[in-house]
Recover the amino acids of this structure.
């Protein structure tokens, strides 16, 4: 047999990318053999026993869907299951929304929140010629990557977290929006800001809305925790509904991972609100091509579950009970962690833990303190100090508080 010289690989020279922090930290936790390890990393709900929770209402809906012989596995339309998107759009805008009644709002089924963000970003860049996006400092770790990959030329930060006072820096936020170029896209977290857990007040939301209108900026809401944050889906959507009531055109990336526990079903919706419904046919036709070039059409199972629950009165009531259960447990863990820290006199102020809302708390710990917390006490968290409150339970919350106390007081390895 003839031998041929080896050619240079087409893949030669590709550098290894840094690991995605949240998944990397979760993997380190999984590999740790310590008996006292605690996982406060990945953003998923856990029960008091530290287990994933399949919502009973979701299980019941799945059983009913599995037993429905009229259903099949044919492709959904490119823009998804329309009945699901209508229900999702009504959930975020309100059943009595004038935008829906006037035919100025519609939804596109997407691949959870990330897919909704990517579809919206690609559409705005390609068809609305938008090149600048502003994200909060700090923000969810994937926002910048999504918009850069979608073609945005400039990704700017706007002030958000006041680290000294541990509150929303509304003065800096407004200042940075005032300095933004017209037609820049502004990413706003609809509720339960990730990673800080600190949301603007209603009065602050009104200030933000006014500057966005004055500066002719485009609003892109990301709401991954509706209902999950407070236990009240309507309360969690207040900011979005206010902006729409003020005549603001916007898009809203919705995720049903947390509030329905459907993490791996990748079910999301991109709600679009316009001021002129005559623009909708063009938007839908061009969005169809964006979808076609990405995932072609979305999966059906998660969409059927969410649609069935939201449109069946008894199931919707049961779901409301489930989100109240989840949000209540998170609030209990917030109170417990703060209580233990204050009871032992841990240096610093800890009121922000219970002032925040949703899955996460931005603790205020430094990267070095976080590293030491992991190395010495096996309490895994992100290096910016973000913790998932659901990783706490009645058995480990005092241990975590003591570990934080030890680190804050200057402990060494």
């Amino acid at each position: 047999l003839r031998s041929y010289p080896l050619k240079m690989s087409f893949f030669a020279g590709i550098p290894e990318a840094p690991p995605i922090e949240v998944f990397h930290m979760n993997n380190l936790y999984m590999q740790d053999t310590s008996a006292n390890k605690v996982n406060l990393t990945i953003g998923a709900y856990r029960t008091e026993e530290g287990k994933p929770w399949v919502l009973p209402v979701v299980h019941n809906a799945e059983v009913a869907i599995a037993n429905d012989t009229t259903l099949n596995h044919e492709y959904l339309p490119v823009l998804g299951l329309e009945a699901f998107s209508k229900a999702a759009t009504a959930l975020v805008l309100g059943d009595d929304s004038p935008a829906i009644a006037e035919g100025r709002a519609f939804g596109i089924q997407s691949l959870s929140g990330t897919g909704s963000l990517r579809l919206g970003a690609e559409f705005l860049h390609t068809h609305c010629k938008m090149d600048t996006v502003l994200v909060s400092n700090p923000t969810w770790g994937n926002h910048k990557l999504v918009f850069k990959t979608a073609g945005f030329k400039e990704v700017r930060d706007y002030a958000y977290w006041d680290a000294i006072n541990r509150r929303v820096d509304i003065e800096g936020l407004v200042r940075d929006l005032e300095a933004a170029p017209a037609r820049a896209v502004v990413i706003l977290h609809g509720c339960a800001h990730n990673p800080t857990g600190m949301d603007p007040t209603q009065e602050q939301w009104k200030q933000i809305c006014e500057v966005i209108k004055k500066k002719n900026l485009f609003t892109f809401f990301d709401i991954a925790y509706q209902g999950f944050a407070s236990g009240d889906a309507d309360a969690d959507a207040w900011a979005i509904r206010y902006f729409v009531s003020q005549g603001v055109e916007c898009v809203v990336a919705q995720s049903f991972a947390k509030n329905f526990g459907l993490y791996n079903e990748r079910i999301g919706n991109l709600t679009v609100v316009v001021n002129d419904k005559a623009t909708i046919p063009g938007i839908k036709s061009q969005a169809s091509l964006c979808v076609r070039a990405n995932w072609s059409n979305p999966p059906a199972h998660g969409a059927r579950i969410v649609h069935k629950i939201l449109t069946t009165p008894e199931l919707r009531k049961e779901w409301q009970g489930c989100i109240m259960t989840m949000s209540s447990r998170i609030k209990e863990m917030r109170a417990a962690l703060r209580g233990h820290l204050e009871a032992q006199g841990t240096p610093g102020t800890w009121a922000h833990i219970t002032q925040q809302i949703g899955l996460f708390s931005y603790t205020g710990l430094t990267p070095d303190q976080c590293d030491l917390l992991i190395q010495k006490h096996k309490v895994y968290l992100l290096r910016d100090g973000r913790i998932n409150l659901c990783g706490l339970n009645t058995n480990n919350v005092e241990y975590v508080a003591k570990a934080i106390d030890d680190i804050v007081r200057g402990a060494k390895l």
